[in-house]
Write a structure and sequence with these properties.
signal, 9-stranded parallel beta sheet, 11 strands, binds zinc ion, TIM Barrel, about 280 residues, alpha/beta
Length: about 280
């Protein structure tokens, strides 16, 4: 008993600290307001609109008129997890990719540079398949805010842009072709300082409006239910492409896809949803 509860405690602590996954059911992305976080609210004023242009735009979902939905998968791996991967821990999920191909589900993969470096062959295959597009999820999967981002270590503001560019370089090295200029903040955590740091890259920060709760989930049915309950026309769903931290995602996808199709939904990539 003692051993079991200790293991549970260790797992819980590991989940909190190593949460390579993004978001929780109660927080669809974490926008940490800085003292000057008012650019969005003051947009009607020209002066503040000018200020807003100095921030990378943030996008959460598509138009609500059409029954389309974008499944997004974060390929998480933290820069210091290479040793664990070398020890046999699997941060990839080839079965999930196979299922998406078999079910013909266009998807957007938010890939970390660390993942692309660890799994170069898979990154290349994903990045050369027209069913998928590859967006940037940072190199290191460190937090882009000073604190309160699921225990992730924080990046200094002056290192944020380089971290994103390092991920893009890792994609190029792996031979990824289908890249799109979108970025997902690790943990979904951002503030005006991080949006300002990334603005020169010309990228759009992509959040989501539908949680799946697949991070560290053990019940695929519960994950599927959370998605099916949350999806609306134009929704963006956040899930994960890493067996280590999201072991039931592939099974959940097999439950979700036919049910949403039966409801009349069509699956699209983020770029298509953004254009619609
Ligand atoms: Zn992530």
């Amino acid at each position: 008993m003692i051993r079991a509860s200790r293991l549970a405690a260790v797992f819980t602590a590991a989940a909190a600290v190593l949460l390579t996954a993004c978001g929780t059911p109660s927080s669809p992305g974490t926008h940490e307001p800085s003292p000057s976080t008012t650019a969005e609210q003051k947009a009607p004023h020209a002066r503040h609109a000018a200020k807003k242009r100095a921030l990378a735009p943030v996008w959460r979902h598509g138009g609500r008129a059409e029954k389309v939905v974008a499944l997004t998968f974060d390929a998480d791996m933290t820069a210091d997890q290479g040793e664990r991967a070398a020890g046999g821990e699997r941060f990839d999920n080839p079965q999930l990719i196979s299922t998406l191909k078999r079910l013909k589900v266009p998807s957007t993969i938010f890939m970390t540079g660390a993942w692309a470096s660890q799994y170069q062959d898979q990154a290349r295959a994903i990045g050369r398949n027209d069913l998928f597009e590859v967006a940037n999820h940072s190199y290191s999967h460190y937090a882009f805010t000073p604190s309160k981002c699921f225990g992730l270590p924080s990046l200094e503001q002056d290192r944020m842009r380089a971290d994103v560019e390092r991920a893009s370089a890792a994609f190029r090295r792996a031979g990824v072709r289908n890249t799109v200029p979108y970025f997902r903040f690790p943990g979904g955590c951002y503030n005006d300082r991080s949006l300002r740091a990334l603005a020169p890259l010309g990228i759009t920060a992509v959040q989501w409006d539908t949680e799946s709760g697949d991070a560290f989930a053990t019940d695929a049915e519960a994950v599927a239910t959370e998605v099916l309950d949350g999806v609306r026309p134009g929704s963006v769903v956040v899930m994960h492409c890493t067996r280590s931290a999201a072991p039931v995602t592939e099974e959940a996808v097999r439950k979700i896809v036919p049910k949403l199709r039966a409801q009349g939904y069509r699956f699209v990539k983020v770029s298509d949803l953004m254009a619609s």
